Amino acid sequence: FPADHVLHQPQAIVNNIELFAEWLYWTAELKDVETGDLYGVQYTLFQLNLQPGLIGYLNNVAISDIRNSQHPRYRYVTLPGQANISNGLDSNKGAYWQYEDNQTTLTYWKDLDVWNIVTLGNVSRDGGHGQNISLNLTIVNDNADYYLHRPNGLSAQGECQDSDSEAMAGRSYYYSHPSMNTTGTLTVDGRSIDVQGNSWFDHQWGGFGKCFMGWDWFSMRLDDGSFVMVYNLKDPSLNDIPSQRGLTYIDPQGNVSWWYGEDAGNLTATRWWKSDLFDFRYPLDWTIDTPAGKYALQPYFDEQTMNVAEGEIKYWEGLMRVR
After folding, report:
1. Residue 174 scores a pLDDT above 60
2. Is the four-CA dihedral 90, 93, 94, 99 of positive or negative sign?
3. Residue-wise pLDDT tens digits, 35-85
4. Cα–Cα distance between 199 and 42 in angstroms, integer?
């Protein structure tokens, strides 16, 4: 740290870049500073092997409007020649790293440990009726800390081809910051909303790009000041891989405990919901029984999918109640 907070060179991680995958990932719960209305936000920058031997970038953006049960979202692909990644020095803010394409500017101010995300896009084919949405968020490390998942931050990640070809095949580094102070503006079709709240930051990278990318994943902020991250990986038949289940518990004092495999507990879906847009079923209500506690989870509303276009990866990423 802090060098690992930005995107890696794939060749520095794996020889076969088709194995490589990486993402910078924020999920936020924010409130309108005037009304107190709750919003969920997702922003993700993926660095992936888009086609054999060609690394590119995928931006995913979504807003969960809890009052109106709406979830406008968009995503787009950027090829290497269409994005600029640079380092620089600002006389006021110090050193920075920046990713920039024609819709998004993502800046990490290294000396301040602060991120700034500015992105704008047009919602398509998701029931949003062509809404324009934008984010302008400043995300600050002034609370909690960065925490590894597992003692060395390295874990197995699904079932991969060529799993014995090199050391990082089927493995990933993964750490999080569970509570970054977040302020800024959300805009939906010209309606500007000043917001503040907290973001959960995930950074994961490694040689798991040929793994079957199926999982159940949860990040929970609890009222006592503790945090829970738990995930459950799937095989190509959508069966659980119990040996690769992972759980991280961060207590209110910042002490970390890890469990892995079947010791991480059990995740049980208690309700399934089908998306009308692409006829795909998602488990939405859950009971999660872990060594750190037993939790019931429900979404604020059901349609919080990242379903945008035929032929693209689809997933559910939304704001949930935890009891």
Report:
1. yes
2. negative
3. 999 999 999 999 999 888 899 999 999 999 999 999 999 989 999 889 999
4. 9
pLDDT (tens digit, 9 = 90+) per residue, 193-217? 999 999 999 999 999 888 877 899 9
Cβ proximity of 209 and 48 under 8 Å: yes
As given in the structure block, the two tokens for residue 241 are 């891989």
- Residue entry with tokens 């997702």: 42
CA distance 231 to 313: 19
Distance CA 309, CA 75 (A): 9
pTM for this structure? 0.94
Q: Give 95-120 pLDDT, tens digit per residue.
A: 999 999 999 999 999 999 999 999 99
H, E, C per residue of 286-315 = EEEEECCEEEEEEECCCCCECCCCCCCCCC
The one-letter code for the residue type at 275 is S
Question: Residues near 307 by Cβ (< 8 Å), separated by ≥ 6?
Answer: 126, 275, 277, 278, 280, 314
Q: What count of Cα atoms within 13 Å lies in the side-chain half-sphere of residue 262?
A: 0
Strand, coil or helix: what is 68?
coil
**Which tokens hold the place of 245?**
């289940």
Distance CA 50, CA 79 (A): 9
Tell me the CA distances in angstroms from 65 to 60, 130, 176, one per residue in order: 17, 16, 25
Q: How far is residue 281 from each of residues 22, 61, 224, 276, 305, measured CA to CA in Å? A: 26, 21, 33, 9, 11
Pairwise CA distance, residues 137 & 129, whole Å: 24
At position 92, the amino acid (one-letter code) is N
Tell me the pLDDT tens digit for each residue of 235-258. Answer: 888 888 999 899 999 999 999 999
Q: Which helix (H) or strand (E) holds 167?
A: none
pLDDT of residue 129: 55
Dmax (CA) for the chain in angstroms is 55
SS3 of residue 175 by DSSP = strand
138 token code pair: 């400043």
